[in-house]
Amino acid sequence: MNEITRFLLSHGGSVLFLVVFVEQAGLPLPAAPWLLTAGALIAGGRLNAWLAVSVTFMACMIADSIWFYLGRRRGHRVLGLLCRISLEPDSCVRRTQDVFARYGMRGLVAAKFIPGLSTLAPPLAGSSGVSIPRFLLFDGVGSLLYVGSFTIVGALFGRQLEQVMAAIGSLGSGALGLIVGLGTLYIGYKYFQRYRVLRELRMARVTVDELYQKLEAGENLMILDLRSHAALAEDPSLIRGALHMTMEEVERRQQEIPRDRDVILYCSCPNEVSSARVALRLHRKGVLRVRPLLGGIDAWRERNYPTELRVVGATLV
């Protein structure tokens, strides 16, 4: 009998609640193996199905409600915190915003099954002004589908799962140590990669106050909004004088970006890592006067600086 099975048989619902809560809280501890094992035990009559589903469902709802509340009270500061601890800081918020912009609250359901998005979706919903009943409805559906699907798969393939667990167990404690060690190495590598990217992107940023002063002084700037089309459709306001170009379009149209004046890039990620990455690529292509905007469009709004609606059909000049 493997360690996961022993834990579940000894402690039952408390272990399932803790594992799922920790995962939904944002720590890199996968709950799927535990849910699959719970399903296998349910199929074998060794674990109560209602207990397993109810405690894991409540774990999801409690963790998500906490993040939703923090997102509503602290807004993008919470998203910034999650970005700082994320293994993929350059795409953490942008991907989640794209899902929300494209699918609305249905994205909250889908985010449960996408690593990295499940933790970001509740605070993003909170900062977006979603009502509490509407959030609880969609998050409840997503949580039930999440825990239910893994539990059902574990029940359907319980025999095969037990065979795999038995094979791993036959290798002794060394196999478990190897699995844990490989998992630790993977997380360590991702954080090292993250640190290397952030260190490489430490270029001079321009603050929103500096940008506003430049605009007021009449400097000839190019300001590019790098948000996706889906995110811009949901929030069509741009910094005054800015043009919209997605990060993918920047790669294709970099020859249109002038080399003889300042180019300011911004996005909606709290840590502006995406715009810094694009700025670094442009710098390597010879656009030397390019700088990311510190804090992005959210910092601009916090200062109540002027914005304008997107002008359809605007071109680079």
TrEMBL record:
Q: Which residues form the Rhodanese domain?
A: 217-309
- Lipid bilayer topology: Multi-pass membrane protein
**Gene3D superfamilies from the UniProt entry:** Rhodanese-like domain
Q: Which residues cross the membrane?
A: 7-27, 47-70, 135-158, 164-189
Q: What is its main location?
A: membrane
Q: Which CDD domains match?
A: GlpE_ST (cd01444)
Give an example GO molecular function.
thiosulfate-cyanide sulfurtransferase activity
Of the GO CC terms on this record, one is:
cytoplasm
Show the InterPro entries listed in the entry.
DedA_domain, Rhodanese-like_dom, Rhodanese-like_dom_sf, Thiosulf_sulfurTrfase, VTT_dom
Q: Where in the cell is it found?
A: Cell membrane
Alphabetical list of Pfam families matching this protein: Rhodanese, VTT_dom
- Keywords annotated in UniProt: Cell membrane, Membrane, Transmembrane, Transmembrane helix
Specify the superkingdom.
Bacteria
Q: What is this protein called?
A: Rhodanese domain protein
